[in-house]
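Design job #97: recover the sequence.
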C-alpha cells in the first residue's frame, strides 16, 4: 500500500514536471537547431524580437499589477475571528474605477496596434530599391526549389545568400511561390514567416548579418511530409557566395568513367522528373540535380547527403520519406550502385 502510494506520488511529480521538461528540451533543441526567434541574425527578425519584447513587457506589468493587487487584497482583507459572522461594507459601482479599466485597455490595445502595424509595414518594404538580390522560392510537396533569376542559377533545398554588413549591405528579396498547395517560408533567425500561395506570389525581404547555416521549416500544413520540409539558408561571405554562384552556373561535368550510371539515369525515367543542365534531362517535378553533391542534405534537409543515404533513397524513397512524390523505381542493387557513382560526380 505504502509502495503504491509512493509510486502514485512519483507519477504525480512526473506529470507535473514533464511539461516543464518538455518545454526545456524543446527550447534547447530550438536553439541547437538554429531556429530561435530570440536569437536574431538580421534586422527583419530583430524588429520582430523587439515587438515580442514590448508585448511581453506590457503583459508582465499587467500581470504583476493584477496578481499583486489580488495578493494584497487576500492578505489585507482576510477574515479575522472578530468579523466571523458580519458582512464587510459592500460597494456598488464606481465611476472612476470603471472608467479606468475601460480606458486603460483601450489605450494599451491602441499603442500595440500602432507598433505592430509599423513593424509589419517596415518588414513589407524593407528597402527593395537598395539593389536587393531576388531569389524565387517555390514550395513543392515536400521540398524547396530556389531560382536566382538574375544569376541563372537553379538549386534545391539549400539556399545560399551573401552576408550583409553595414558598409556593404546585401538585402535579399524572396519571391514566394507554390507549385501545388499552400506552404509557408519560415527561417526564424532571419525573418518572419510568409505564406506561399498557389497563383498568388508573395514577397519578403531579409538580410543575414552573420555567417552560418540558418534552419527553418515549412510553417503551413501541406500534407503528410509537411514536418519533413525543412529549410537551410547558408549565409556566407560575399566572396564565398560569388564562388558558389559561379560553380552553380556551370553545366554538369560529363565523366566517362560513370557512363553506366548515366545510362541508367536516362533509361529509368529519372530524367522525366529531374533536370541536369548540360544533358537532355530537363524534368521539373523533382529537385535540380546538376550540382547535387554541393548540397549537405537531400530530401529537404531530412537526410545527410552521402553515398549510403543516396543508395537507400534510390532503393526506396518512401522508406526514408513516406509517401513522398518520388516513386520506388524498383532498381537492382547493381543499377543503384552505378547510379550513385554517377550522382557523385555531380559536384
Ligand atoms: C515521378 C518523378 C520522379 C522520378 C521518376 C524520379 N524522381 Fe527523384 N525525386 C522526385 C521528387 C519529387 C523528389 C523530392 C522528394 C522530397 O524531398 O520530398 C526527388 C528527390 C530525388 C533526390 C534527392 C535530391 C535532393 O536534393 O533532395 C535524388 C538524388 C533523386 N531524386 C534521384 C533520382 C533518380 C536517380 C531517379 C531515377 C532512378 C529519380 N530520382 C526518379 C521525383 C522523381
Ligand atoms: Cu510545405
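Job complete. Output follows.
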Amino acid at each position: 500500500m505504502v509502495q503504491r502510494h509512493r509510486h502514485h506520488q512519483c507519477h504525480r511529480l512526473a506529470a507535473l514536471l514533464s511539461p516543464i521538461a518538455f518545454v526545456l528540451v524543446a527550447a534547447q533543441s530550438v536553439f541547437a537547431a538554429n531556429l530561435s526567434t530570440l536569437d536574431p541574425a538580421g534586422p527583419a527578425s530583430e524588429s520582430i524580437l523587439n515587438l515580442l519584447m514590448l508585448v511581453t513587457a506590457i503583459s508582465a506589468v499587467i500581470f504583476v499589477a493584477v496578481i499583486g493587487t489580488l495578493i494584497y487584497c487576500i492578505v489585507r482583507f482576510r477574515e479575522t475571528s472578530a468579523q466571523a459572522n458580519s458582512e464587510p461594507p459592500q460597494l456598488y459601482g464606481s465611476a472612476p474605477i470603471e472608467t479606468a479599466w475601460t480606458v486603460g485597455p483601450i489605450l494599451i490595445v491602441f499603442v500595440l496596434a500602432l507598433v505592430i502595424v509599423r513593424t509589419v509595414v517596415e518588414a513589407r518594404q524593407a528597402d527593395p530599391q537598395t539593389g536587393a538580390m531576388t531569389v524565387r522560392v517555390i514550395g513543392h510537396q515536400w521540398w524547396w526549389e530556389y531560382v536566382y533569376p538574375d544569376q541563372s542559377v537553379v538549386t534545391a533545398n539549400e539556399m545560399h545568400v551573401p552576408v550583409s554588413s553595414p558598409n556593404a549591405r546585401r538585402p535579399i528579396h524572396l519571391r514566394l511561390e507554390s507549385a501545388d498547395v499552400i506552404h509557408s517560408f519560415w527561417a526564424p533567425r532571419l525573418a518572419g514567416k510568409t505564406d506561399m500561395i498557389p497563383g498568388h506570389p508573395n514577397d519578403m525581404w531579409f538580410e543575414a548579418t552573420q555567417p552560418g547555416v540558418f534552419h527553418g521549416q515549412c510553417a503551413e500544413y501541406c500534407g503528410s511530409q509537411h514536418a519533413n520540409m525543412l529549410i537551410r539558408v547558408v549565409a556566407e561571405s560575399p566572396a564565398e557566395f560569388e564562388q558558389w554562384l559561379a560553380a552553380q552556373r556551370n553545366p554538369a561535368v560529363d565523366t566517362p568513367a560513370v557512363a553506366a550510371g548515366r545510362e541508367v539515369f536516362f533509361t529509368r525515367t529519372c530524367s522525366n522528373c529531374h533536370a541536369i543542365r548540360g544533358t537532355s534531362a530537363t524534368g521539373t517535378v523533382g529537385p535540380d540535380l546538376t550540382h547535387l553533391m554541393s548540397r549537405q542534405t537531400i530530401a529537404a534537409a531530412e537526410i545527410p547527403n552521402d553515398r549510403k543515404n543516396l543508395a537507400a533513397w534510390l532503393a526506396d524513397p518512401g522508406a526514408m520519406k513516406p509517401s513522398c512524390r518520388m516513386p520506388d523505381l524498383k532498381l537492382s542493387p547493381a543499377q543503384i550502385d552505378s547510379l550513385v557513382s554517377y550522382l557523385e560526380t555531380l559536384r
